[in-house]
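Fill in residues.
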């Protein structure tokens, strides 16, 4: 857990804003360290965490979290952490084994064009009654983490379906009022309207998406990663854009993070974005205001 980043975001495990959709992006860099941070942060905050790990195994996240002082095994045993191991569950769908049950959450792999109905229903069912833990233990607000949502594009899911998925996850997890959401890709009853009782949720969503190469328009490609990034940026309340240094490789500084607050303040003004340089250590990361590091001016 990175105390300097907590200070930038004005958050701590004892006090943080609920109802946020935090988007983490990277370009020519690796923003995975921020996913590890938010995972450890919300577990220490005693939140009920649902982690959709679509690119790495549970052992990978466990080894990194262990260095940050958090045990994922203990969190799972207590019922605080629910982990969907996308790599493993995908095999149960694509290469079914006799006597084994395929993961319903990954049903979209059978027909990616059908959208992410099964994955959303998995999220909704696991986070309903999220405050109730095993052994009568109570947890704080629920948190959905996704690493990384852009991999769904390479699996044949359209960018529109991914944006629908993120929109309804945000409406379900981040809202505190009872809402009735019209479904574009999730049909639950004859009226096509699914009542979502999120009265006791008001949790947070953290998603990572990646864009390879230089920033450019997806010419004539509505399903490309750039358009997915634009759509997710429009939905989020905070965006953390991780990039390499414009000056090139530096041994002492690994890259820069632009923090953008997209929610307006009480006076109707938007908080200006801020740019920080960072260096990842074995057990954490350091953040510098641009120009304050002796390594890069």
């Amino acid at each position: 857990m990175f105390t300097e980043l907590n200070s930038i975001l004005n958050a701590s495990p004892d006090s943080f804003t609920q109802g946020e959709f935090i988007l983490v992006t990277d370009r020519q860099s690796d923003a995975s360290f921020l996913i590890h941070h938010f995972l450890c942060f919300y577990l220490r905050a005693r939140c009920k965490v649902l982690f959709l790990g679509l690119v790495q195994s549970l052992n990978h996240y466990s080894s990194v979290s262990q260095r940050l002082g958090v045990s994922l095994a203990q969190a799972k045993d207590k019922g605080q952490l629910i982990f969907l191991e996308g790599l493993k569950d995908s095999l149960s769908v694509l290469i079914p084994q006799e006597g084994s049950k395929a993961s319903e959450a990954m049903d979209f792999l059978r027909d990616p064009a059908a959208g992410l109905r099964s994955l959303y229903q998995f999220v909704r069912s696991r986070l309903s009654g999220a405050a109730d833990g095993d052994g009568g233990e109570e947890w704080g607000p629920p948190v959905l983490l996704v690493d990384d949502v852009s991999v769904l594009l390479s699996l044949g899911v359209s960018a529109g379906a991914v944006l629908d998925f993120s929109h309804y996850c945000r409406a379900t997890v981040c809202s505190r009022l009872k809402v009735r959401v019209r479904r574009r890709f999730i049909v639950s009853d004859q009226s096509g309207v699914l009542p979502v009782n999120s009265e006791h949720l008001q949790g947070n969503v953290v998603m990572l998406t990646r864009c390879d190469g230089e920033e450019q328009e997806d010419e004539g490609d509505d399903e490309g990663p750039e358009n997915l990034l634009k759509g997710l940026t429009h939905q989020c309340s905070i965006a953390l854009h991780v990039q390499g240094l414009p000056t090139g490789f530096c041994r002492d500084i690994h890259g820069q993070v632009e923090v953008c607050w997209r929610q307006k303040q009480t006076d109707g003004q938007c908080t200006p974005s801020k740019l920080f340089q960072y260096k990842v250590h074995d057990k954490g990361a350091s953040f510098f205001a641009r120009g304050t590091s002796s390594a890069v001016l």
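Residues 177-199, 293-297 have pLDDT under 50 and may be disordered.
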